[in-house]
Amino acid sequence: MKTLLLALLCLAGANLSYAQTLYVSPSGSASNTGTSISAPTTLANALATVTAGNTIYLRGGTYSLSASVIITASNNGTSSAYKSVVAYTGETPVLDFSSMAIADANRGVILDGDYWHWTGITIQGAGDNGMLLAGNSNIIEKCIFKGNHDSGLQLSRYVTSNTTLASWPTNNTILNCEAYDNQDPDNEDADGFAAKLTCGTGNVFNGCISHNNIDDGYDLYAKDDTGPIGPVTLINCLAYGNGTLSSGGTSGDGDKNGFKLGGSGIAVAHIVRRCVSFNNGHHGFTDNNNPGAIEVTNNTSYNNAESNFNFRTGSTATFKNNLSYNAGSSDATNGTDVTPTNVWWKSGASSNTGGLVVSSADFQSLSPAVTKNSDGSPNLGTFLALASGSDMIDKGVTTTGITYSGSAPDIGARESGGSTNPSTYTVSVTVSPSAGGTVTLSPSGGSYTSGTVVTLTATPASGYTFSSWGGSASGTSTTTTVTVTSNLSVTASFTSTSTGGGSTLHIDDAATSTGGYCSADGSRQNTYSGADGGYYINLSNASGKGVNYSVSVPAAGTYSFVFRYSNGGATVSTTARLLVNGSTAVSSVSFPKTTSWTAWTTTAAVTATLAAGVNTIRIETLSSTEFALIDWLEVTGTTPTAGACSSSARAVAAVKPELTDTKVYPNPASNTAAISFYNEKTDRVQIRMYSSNGQLLKTVVDKEFPAGNNQLTMDVSSLPQSLYLIKVENSAGSNTLKLVKQ
User: Fold this and answer.
1) What is the pLDDT of residue 488?
2) Cα–Cα distance between 278 and 568 in angstroms, integer?
3) 126 with 145: CB under 8 angstroms?
4) Interval 410-434: pLDDT, tens
5) Interval 84-98 mean pLDDT
6) What was the pLDDT predicted at 214?
7) Exposed (0-12), middle (13-18) or buried (19+): which is 248, by Cβ within 10 Å?
8) pTM attached to this predicted model
9) Do domains 499-655 and 663-741 have the same CATH topology?
C-alpha cells in the first residue's frame, strides 16, 4: 500500500509540474527549474523544457545574448496547446544580440518549431535577421524588431534541404508587430518584414507597422533559383519612411518601397487590404515585376518619392477602392482597374474614370501621427482619415474581406464612421453524415479576427473514410486551411466503408440528367455565403412548394434522409413534409431556426421506405410562412445512387421573375432621386447603378429591408447628365429602371 501511495504521489507531482508555467529573467540561473517567480531560469533552459500548453514568462530587462536562440523543428506545441513566450505583465523584455558578429548565419531567434506564440518581446541588434520564422502555425504578436543587420523578421526556410513549397513555413500569423531601423552592411537587404525566397502558403501580416528600414517595409521577393513562394496576405498594415533610418541616415542602394510584392517575373497572387503607405523613398506599393493576380483592395498611398502605386505592364492585379494622393511620379496601374472605384495620382493630378477628384480637403489631416492601440495595432488618429463630406465616402464597391459603414465602402484604407460589420468572424463546420467523423480547428474556438488562417483536420469515425471538403473549403486531403475574412461555413464529407451499415448519397442543387436533383418551386441563388458549391434553393413562400429529387436503390428498404439548410428569417422552427413517390412518408420534418442566413446546419435524420428502383423524393412546405434555404440532401442506406429525372422534372429552379412596384422619381432628376420597392418579407435588397452601356458604377445599397413598402433617397447631384440604369433585386426577383440625370 505504501509503495502504491508513493507512486501515486509521484505521478501527481509529475502532473503538477507539467501544468506549471516557467519564469525567466536576465539574471536567471540554469540550475533553477523556473517554476517559481522568485527563482527564474534562463531562456535557453525554459525553451528546452516547456511543455505544450504552457507559458514562459519573460521578466523585463535586457537579455545580453551572443549566440542565436534556436527552437528546433522537433520542439513543437500542438494545434490545441501552443507553447507561449510572453512578456511578464507590465514589463518589457529585450533580447539584445548586439555583441553578435554581423554574418548571414547569425540570426537572433530561429523559430523552426510549430505552434509557438510569442507576445510582447523586443528583439534587437542581431547579426542578421532579428527572427527567422521557419516553422508552421506560429503566432508572433506585439513584438518589436529593431536595429538588426538584416530584415527584422523574415519568413523563410532554416533547413536548406527543404526545397519544396510544401516544406517551407506555412500558416504563420504576424499580428500587431513593429519593425524599424533594420540595416544590413550593404544597405540593400534589410526590410522591416520579409516573407520571401522560401516562404510557404497561408502566412498573414495583420496590423503590423514597418518604418525607417534601410530597404523595404515589406518584401515578398521571389527568384528563379527557388521559384514561387506562397501567397501572403497583408491586412491593416502600415509602411512609412522606408529607405531612411530614424536617425536620418540613408543609402542609394536600398529599394526603399513601402510594400514590395514580388520579383523576377514570378507570378504569386498576394492579397493586400486596408494598408497605408506614405513617405517612403521609392514606391508606396509595387508589384516589383510580379505578374500574378494580386488583390489590391482599399489601400491608401500618400506622398511617396516615386509612384504611390507601381504595377508594371503585364500585371494581372485587380484594384478596388484604392486611394492615391500626391506622389513624386504617376501611378502605374496595369491590371484590372475596377472603375470608377480607384482614385489614382497621374501627371501630378487626381485621376478617376467617374470624375472623383481627391484633394487635401478630403482629409482630416495630412500631418503624420502614428501611435499604437493597446493591442499593438496602428493608430493614425486623424491622419489620412476622410473628412466629413468627402466625395470618397461610400464610393467604393463591396468585396470580400472589406467591412464598412454606410451604403458602400469608402475609397481608401480608412473607413469613415467606424464599421457596422463584425470585428470577428465565425467558422462553422457541418459533418456529413453526422456519424462520419469529427473536425478540429486550429486555432480552436470558432471565432476569429479577419485574416486569421484556420487549419481544419478531419478524422473519420470507425467504418468511414474522409471524402472531401465543401462550402468555404475545398480539397480531398484530411487537412486544409481557410483564411477568415467573413463568416465561413465548411462541410466535411465522409463515406461509409461498411458493407452492412450502408452508404450515403449526397445530392446537391445542380440539375443534371443523372445528378439526383430535379427541380424546385423557387429559385437557385447564391446571395448568402456558405452553401456547398455556392448555391442553394430558396422556395417560394407558399404552402405546397418543394424540391424534387430522384434516388435509385437496389432493393426495397428503410433509408434515412438529412437536409442541409439555413433558417435565419424564422422566429421558430419551420416544418415540411417528406413525400416518396407522391405519398407522405414523414408528416413533419423540422428545420429549426439558425442564427443567420449564412449559418448552415443539418436537420435531424428521418427515415422512410424506398421501393426497389427509381424513387421520387420531395420535401414540401406546409404553410406560407418563410421557409429555410435548402443546400443539399443526403440519403443513407443500402447503396443509394442518384436516379434519372424525367425531362419535365429536370427543369432548373426558376429564374427570378421581374419585380413589380419598383419606382424611381423624380425622373428626370437633378439633385436627389427616390427609389421605392416592395418586399413580400424581410429580405436582403441590392440596388446597383449602371451606365447606359451596362457598366457597374456603384452599389447603392446591399442590406436587409423589412416587409412592405420601402424607400430610400440617392444623391445624384455629382453625376454627369446622362441616362442611368438602376437595378433593384431581392430574393423574389429583380427589375431594372431607367433614370435620366438632367
Assistant:
1) 80
2) 44
3) no
4) 999 999 875 434 456 778 888 877 7
5) 95
6) 96
7) exposed
8) 0.60
9) no
**Cell matching residue 52:** 505544450
CA angle 13–18–21, rounded 5-degree value: 115
Q: How far apart are CA 46 and CA 560, in angstroms?
A: 55
d(CA 157, CA 230): 13
d(CA 441, CA 436): 17
CATH architecture of 499-655: Sandwich (2.60)
CA R_g for the chain:
29
Give the pLDDT confidence score for residue 418 in this predicted structure.
53
pLDDT tens track for 446-464: 667 767 888 888 888 776 7
Q: For the domain bounded by 663-741, which CATH number is listed?
A: 2.60.40.2550
User: Which residues are known catalytic residues?
Assistant: 260
Tell me the pLDDT band of 20, cut-offs 50, 70 and 90: low
For residue 54, give the nearest of 96, 84, 75, 17 by alpha carbon.
84
The cell for 325 is 494622393
- List the grid coordinates of 453: 488562417
pLDDT band at 718 (very low <50, low <70, confident <90, very high): confident
- Residue count (the chain): 742
- The distance of Cα 52 from the centroid of its chain, to the nearest Å, equals 27
Question: How many C-beta neighbours within 10 Å does residue 714 have?
Answer: 19
The domain locations on the chain are 1-96, 499-655, 663-741
Do the beta carbons of residue 202 and residue 234 sit within 8 Å? Answer: no
CA distance 487 to 533: 16
**DSSP string over 540-562:** -SSTT-EEEEEEEESS-EEEEEE
Q: Where are the beta strands (DSSP E) in 189-290?
A: 193-195, 203-206, 209-211, 218-219, 232-235, 238-240, 259-260, 271-273, 276-278, 285-286
**Nearest CA-CA partner of 100 in 71, 150, 65:** 65
DSSP secondary structure of 603-648: PPPEEEEE-SEEEEEEEEESSSS---EEEEEEEEESS-EEPPPPTT
CA distance 563 to 606: 10
pLDDT of residue 730: 81
Give the cell for residue 648.
419535365
pLDDT band for 200, please (50, 70, 90 cuts): very high
Q: Report which of residues 198 and 733 the model is more confident about.
A: 198
pLDDT at residue 590 tops 50: yes
Which pLDDT does position 499 carry in this prediction?
Answer: 42
